[in-house]
Each structure stands twice: as structure tokens, then as C-alpha cells.
Amino acid sequence: MKRIYLDHAATSPMHPEVAEKMFSMMKESYGNPSSIHSFGREARRILDEARRSLAKTINAKPAEIIFTSGGTEADNLAIIGTALANQHLGKHIITTDIEHHAVLHACKYLEKIGYDITYLPVDKSGMISLEDLTNNLTDQTVLVSIMYGNNEVGVIQPIREIGHILKKHQAFFHTDAVQAYGIEHIDITDLSVDLLSVSSHKINGPKGVGFLYAKAGLKLQPSQYGGEQELKRRAGTENVPGIFGFQLAANLSLATQKQKSENYNAFKQEMISIFQEHQLMFEVNSPNDGLPHVFNVYFPKTNIESLLVNLDLAGIAASSGSACTAGSIDPSHVLVSMYGKESERILSSIRFSFGLGTTKEDIQYAAHEISKVIKKVTA
């Protein structure tokens, strides 16, 4: 049976060149970058070069890059670290209903210890209202955290416009760019963000590594203590092989940015065409101008759990925005915010996402198999 992976937004396969070079590097450069001997200095050289290279991808300074274990840690350090270190400015935070749980759960923690959190709603296209944002800013607002591109439906928020609004306010601005990095052109100066989170495994790099951009001079309270790594902002021996692989993956990803976007948008149109050919009932939840690799589709009269199981049996790997626990699926918080708790879409929508290795032939094969499954489960 042919297997097609259409879940790149969850994680992506490591680029073969990254895996090969990481393996060689792990065998040859195993020193601790904090050690002063030649082995340590070699590791430090690799680490410093990766920091310079990754900083350049977003037009940041090397010292503004904090290496983390991934997007979740970067989000937590940005939100909790900024809030705790700057609580003298206020204890009010603004975020949205459709953030990744790494952001939402960090905010819930802060609520428990006395912070006031405003969760901005979105419209049916998944967009926040800039007027809502402006109206909710107070003299106690210390942080605004709004994701760049949504992981479930792909909607891209007006980050540049938000940054412009916040230039006139004391609040720091964080954006979770985990899904957008490597796909969208990102320039932190142009966007006027103070903090930005990125993860390696979304761009064909290794798992367990990411970075937080934190603007020079911004105060952060560390989330762990021990050594003085990352300019005392994140203790612990750096994951040098992972960071090395992350750097390679980022450079490879950015070199093919334009071609990827064109291919992924073409894949969406190909799937739509084949669904129409099969006369399926469906509606697209993803906006036309959203992230090109994320394609969320509503299939009326289907059930997520049944659909995902049958797709897996047909060799198609996809996902929903739901968390499956103990045999039950909770509605997607993103789709609930977009369409309401009573909408059938929240339990009948599937996310397909594209990436390295996905071909037009894969898309055509998958779309026909998906159509067969939809007909089967709705018969």
C-alpha cells in the first residue's frame, strides 16, 4: 500500500543533507561549548556560526537569539519570562483564542498567579480585529502575543500592523512564528516585534531545538537555572548537533521559499479539483491568502475520528486540530472560535499539510483516496 504523508504542520521529515551532516558532526565535534580546551572551542565555533546564520534569517543580531528545546519552550520563555520580569509595568496580557496551546497554557498559568488575560476573538476567516486589539490595550498591558500563522487553518495575522500599533504603547510584542518560519519572509525590524518563536522540526531540521528572538535590552526571567549559557537567559549545555542541523535546515528551507509556496498553492488547487471531480460536498476553512502549506477542509456529515482512522488505513496521514484522548476528540478551539460551538465544522474538518517530498503525483493519488474514504463514511 502506498503511504502519503500530509501532516507536515505537525512535524516534517529531516532533510537528508541535514541528517548526513549532523551525523558526521556528532562523531567529530562532541566538545562542550563552555569548555576552554580545543574540543570545546570547536563546539563553540559551530554554535557561534549557527547563531549568526540563524539571526541573519530574520534580520536580528546574534546576541538576540536564545536557543531553546523547541517552539513550546520559546513560547513559554517569551510569555512567562517577559511577564514576570516586567510585572512592574503591569499584569495585563492580550492574546487570541486561536493560539497554539504552548501560548494558551502559558497564559492560563499566569492567570492562576494573578495576571489578567484578554483573549481576542476571531472572525470566520480566522482574523482578529485591530480595533478590538486597540480597544483592549490599557496602561497595565505588559505583553501582546499573537501568532504569525495559525497551525490549524493557516490564517496569517496582520503582524506588521499590530507592531505599528504597539510602537506607541509600552507593551512588548511576541509572535509565535513556528508555522510561518521558512515559508514566509520574516524581518523582525519590519514587523516591529520584540519576541519571536521558531522551531526546527517544522522546517526539516531535527526535533528538540528552536530559538526565541528577544530584542536587545528586553528583560526576561529565566525558566531554568544552572549555568550561564545563552547570556544567562537559558541555562543548560547547548544542543550543538541540533543547533547545527537547525542552521542547515533553515538555509535549505529559505533557499526554496518561493518555489515551495507556488507548489503548495498548486497542491491545494489540485485537491479541490479532484474533490469536485468526485462531486464531494466540502468547504475550505483555510483562507486563500493563508500559509500555503496548510489546507483545512470541512467534509459535511463526517466524523473526525472515523475519518482519520479510515484515511490512515488508506495510507493517508493527515490530522485534525483536535486532541484525541481516551478515545474521544475535543473540538478544535480554532474552529470553535471561527464558527461557534454549534457548527458542524468543528467535528468534521481535516487538516492536510504539505512539505519536503510531497509531489503532484502524491497529491493526486491522495485526493482520489480521500474522496473514496469520504464516500465510504458518508454512505
Automatic annotation (TrEMBL):
Q: Which NCBIfam families match?
A: PRK02948.1
Indicate the segments forming the Aminotransferase class V domain, all copies.
4-365
Pfam families with a match to the protein in the record? Aminotran_5 (PF00266)
The family line of this record is: Belongs to the class-V pyridoxal-phosphate-dependent aminotransferase family. NifS/IscS subfamily.
Keyword Iron included in the entry's annotation: yes
Which reaction does this chain catalyze? (sulfur carrier)-H + L-cysteine = (sulfur carrier)-SH + L-alanine
List the source organism: Metabacillus litoralis
Q: Keywords for this entry?
A: Iron, Iron-sulfur, Metal-binding, Pyridoxal phosphate, Transferase
Q: What class of enzyme is it?
A: transferase
Known cofactor(s): pyridoxal 5'-phosphate
The entry lists its GO molecular-function terms as: cysteine desulfurase activity; iron-sulfur cluster binding; metal ion binding
Record InterPro entries:
Aminotrans_V_dom, Aminotrans_V_PyrdxlP_BS, Cysteine_dSase, PyrdxlP-dep_Trfase, PyrdxlP-dep_Trfase_major, PyrdxlP-dep_Trfase_small
Q: Which PANTHER family match?
A: CYSTEINE DESULFURASE, CYSTEINE DESULFURYLASE FAMILY MEMBER
- Enzyme nomenclature, EC number: 2.8.1.7
> Under which name does UniProt file this protein?
cysteine desulfurase
